[in-house]
């Protein structure tokens, strides 16, 4: 489980609890968990064969270090690519039971809610997807597949209410066309969006955008208040 600021092991639990800030929390832990995770995404569950590390490395190499789900290439970021057991049996290393998945796609597999991905790692994956022209499409299927899991509920809400599909991982630029941040979801035509990092929200609003935090949007969804 998470040990936010040493809450589980420290002696200042009341102080940490009282000072808890959702924006600060989400800037480090991007996923809004349906259940609390039991371990980090970078530490896979035990029960593997002794030679699993070699099996995993060889399999990922055979796939050219590319995620088989979203197709992002992680050749320069190999630690962000896992080898997934499709049937969940970690000793079943038949090639037909293996699948190379980036951290984001791996945690979206059934019964993988225990995994978490830091906001920094998620931003790297989204940036690489964008650079590799994997985020060009703007449709709901791609949005759900490519977006940070923390905004999954927001996407469901907007889709159900018939709203326009947002851009995922939108680069925010200033007057000089310099990239100053990234929005998890964006509707450029309306200059509106959703972001996790509070500093990015402030920058966006100063540039004339209307950007909400994930927490703010979730609170407002009960009132069905949408951008368009």
From TrEMBL:
InterPro entries: HNH_nuc
Name of this protein: HNH nuclease domain-containing protein
Lineage: superkingdom: Bacteria
Matching CDD domains: HNHc
């Amino acid at each position: 489980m998470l040990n936010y600021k040493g809450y589980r092991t420290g002696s200042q639990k009341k102080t940490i609890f009282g000072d808890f800030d959702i924006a600060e929390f989400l800037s480090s832990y991007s996923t809004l968990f349906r259940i609390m995770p039991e371990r980090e995404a970078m530490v896979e569950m035990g029960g593997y064969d002794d030679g699993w590390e070699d099996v995993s490395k060889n399999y990922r190499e055979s796939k050219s270090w590319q995620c088989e789900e979203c197709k992002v290439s992680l050749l320069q970021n190999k630690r962000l690519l896992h080898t997934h057991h499709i049937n969940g049996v970690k000793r079943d290393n038949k090639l037909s039971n293996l699948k190379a998945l980036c951290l984001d796609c791996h945690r979206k597999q059934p019964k993988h809610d225990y995994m978490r991905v830091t906001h920094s790692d998620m931003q790297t994956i989204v940036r690489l997807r964008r650079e590799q022209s994997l985020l060009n499409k703007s449709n709901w299927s791609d949005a759900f597949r490519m977006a940070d899991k923390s905004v999954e509920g927001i996407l469901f809400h907007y889709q159900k209410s018939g709203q326009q599909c947002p851009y995922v991982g939108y680069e925010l630029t200033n007057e000089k066309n310099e990239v100053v941040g990234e929005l998890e979801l964006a509707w450029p035509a309306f200059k509106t969006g959703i972001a996790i990092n509070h500093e990015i929200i402030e920058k966006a609003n100063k540039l004339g955008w209307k950007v909400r935090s994930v927490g703010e949007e979730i609170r407002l969804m009960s009132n069905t208040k949408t951008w368009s």
